[in-house]
Structure formats: structure tokens, C-alpha cells
Design a protein that fits this description.
Blueprint lengths: L1 E4 L5 E4 L9 E2 L2 E2 L23 E5 L4 E6 L1 H8 L3 H10 L4 E3 L5 E4 L9
């Protein structure tokens, strides 16, 4: 687009193709709306040396997969800090191993996609 001033002082914008049709003249605006739509597909790849642990969850009354807090955060799209806060608040089912490792019940996580 190029711009020029008209004799009466109004700004005139002209399409770059050289057409003389003004887009803005004498304070009137011709509005044009452009809508852009993005579609995203998300693929979550969790790699590393994760062993799958299945155990009985007393809250779910079912045998479930137990996850480390970091793995649970990745799957749920949360931060590990929030996972620990939810465990302390009682919002997630969890158990601890004899070594003191925290394991989260997969069924108690709010999932982005299951």
C-alpha cells in the first residue's frame, strides 16, 4: 500500500497494485476483516527409562498404573509443582514406596487426552 495526501488534507491509502480506489478518504474507513484459523494436532512423546508400575489404588478400588510426579505432570499437561500441591491437598490418589518414592494414580489425573 502507498499513501498520499489529498488537496483537502485527508490521507488516502492506495492499493499497491496501482489502483486508484482509496481505502481511507476524508475520515471514512472501509473495514476489512481477515479471519485466520489454526488447527493443531498434538502428539505427546514421553521417552526415558520409565518402568510401568501397576498397583491397587484403594481410592479407585482398581488396579491402576502408578506414575512418578514428573511423568504425571507431563501426561496431564501440568507442572510437577502443581502435582505435589494437589497430592498435599488430597486431590490426587497416591502411594509411596518403601524407598519413599511418590507414585500418582493415573486415574485421578485430570487428563488432556486419555
Amino acid at each position: 500500500m502507498t499513501q498520499s495526501a489529498s488537496p483537502d488534507g485527508a490521507l488516502i491509502l492506495v492499493n499497491a497494485r496501482g489502483w486508484d480506489k482509496p481505502i481511507l478518504k476524508a475520515g471514512r474507513v472501509k473495514r476489512k476483516r481477515t479471519q485466520i484459523v489454526f488447527e493443531l494436532d498434538e502428539v505427546l512423546v514421553v521417552s526415558g527409562r520409565q518402568t510401568m508400575a501397576f498397583a491397587w489404588c484403594a481410592e479407585c478400588c482398581d488396579q491402576v498404573q502408578l506414575l512418578t510426579p514428573d511423568h504425571a505432570a507431563t501426561i496431564a499437561g501440568l507442572t510437577p509443582r502443581l502435582i505435589y500441591q494437589w497430592v498435599e491437598a488430597g486431590r490426587l490418589h497416591f502411594s509411596e514406596t518403601s524407598e519413599g518414592q511418590l507414585l500418582i494414580c493415573e486415574n485421578s489425573l485430570p487428563m488432556k487426552q486419555r
